[in-house]
Write a structure and sequence with these properties.
The protein has 60 residues and is mainly alpha-helical. The protein has one domain (1-10, 24-60). It contains 2 helices and 2 strands. A two-stranded parallel sheet has the order 1-2.
Length: 60
């Protein structure tokens, strides 16, 4: 999940005392952009048929 405008519309991130807060940060759109930049550059030349999750460690 990345923090985008669609994310903001779907999820209310206002801090509320009784609401559960995420244990790890939420990925930003810039994080996804950096992964795409990496894959399109020299770093991604040997990567194929892979699913790369950019989620700030939520599924780690």
């Amino acid at each position: 999940m990345a923090r985008t405008e669609t994310f903001r519309r779907l999820f209310d991130l206002r801090p509320i005392g009784d609401r559960l807060q995420p244990a790890v940060p939420i990925a930003e759109a810039d994080d996804v952009a950096r992964m795409v930049e990496y894959l399109l550059g020299d770093g991604g030349q040997n990567i194929s048929r892979s699913v790369l999750t950019v989620d700030a460690g939520r599924t780690a």
